[in-house]
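Pasting as-is:
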Amino acid sequence: MDITNPPLDTLENITYDEMKVGDSAVLSRTVRREDIQLFAVVSGDVNPSHLDDQYARESQFGEVTAHGMLSGAMISALLGNQFPGPGTVYVGQNLRFKALVHIGDTLTVKLTCAEKIAGKKHLIIACTVTNQDGVLVVEGEAVVAAPTTKIRRSRATLPEVTVTDQQRRYDELLAQSEGLPAIKVAVAHPCDAESLKGALQAMHEGLIIPYLIGPEAKIRKAAEQIGEDLKDCRIIDTEHSVESAERAVALAKTGEVDALMKGSLHTDELMSQVVNKVTGIRTARRISHVFVADVPRYPRTLLITDAAINIQPELADMVDIVQNAIDVAHAINIARPRVALLSAVETINPKIPSTLVAAALCKMAERGQIKGGILDGPLAFDNAVSPFAARTKGITSEVAGCADILVVPDLESGNMLAKQLEYLAGALLAGVVVGARVPIVLTSRADRAEARAASCAVVKRLVAHRLAAASL
């Protein structure tokens, strides 16, 4: 009897009397990073060899390795599910570990009945685990009390588990801007610990060269709170937040800095200076905000606009809002972004203005008034992000179910959507303002330093993208 990865909708055992010496079963599985993380959570084994990329690179192994007992768990799974299956009781296990297991390795467990012990109804099972190259990873023997009665049961439905590794997602976002030179950023009024920490964290990550603009005494006090001495930072002393915003925008206007960053002042204080008709840095393009979101359960980077600047944009405003978001997508290597124009429904309804705006924007894109993306709408949120929902409603579209950009009808809906993704779905959000002469890091005053540094990573890529486009 040989069993190789059978379907497991129903579990059926092999009794002691049915089992023959030489019978075998095989189970294969590819090791993912999430498997290692989940094993660490369940076992409590947080050895950095398994979880810390930097530590692993500097160790004798050179890269993260799986726990040895992850292979042992696969042996246990095959014993309990199939060979002999339900009713099996572990008596003993002897394992010898022969080779390391890395992320991406495909492991094949083979169990073979080596001996039957009639008096105790025990089985001695020879165990081997090999990788995709045929290299022996683990070998050993298991002793089990075999089931003596036939058992057939429906497979239990396991709870759905999502691994949310925000630190790794943050590191991956930063890694996308590696190799680009640090950009000069005027940080307006970083007078509390978190806003200053975000700017300094971005500096330490090699993302920015900060110009700290604000009351120097307050900035230094905030630095003391987070254990920083500011010896490598330029500080421009001001009396209050309005002057901080004025000085920051002036530096951008003269080209002394590449970008702006909001500190602990209110958004309106900074943006009023940005859009000032005389001293500001506005362009012919409407200024808008874009969230760049890494959502754990969504398979691609998701852009959301506008959730922070334009309260109730009209059609002409929406043209620029959409084009700004497409430009951001291009800067982060989404070559042909799929743009979903959100509403409450997926059909045009004259009583719902956002459906009319969506239809107009799609026609404008067809005629080249919006460039560089694929537009569709109106689409309800579920139709935009869920292939199942789109199929169920009979929507055939390049955008439905796989949107890269979500365009919301107004600030209220956008702000609530972004915050829900952040606080209920564990999304990592980076926030940027585009449409001005320079990009602006704009996050909530409640955001942590990591969100601010992540936003700097996005802005760094925006600056590099603009410079590359200007040189063509």
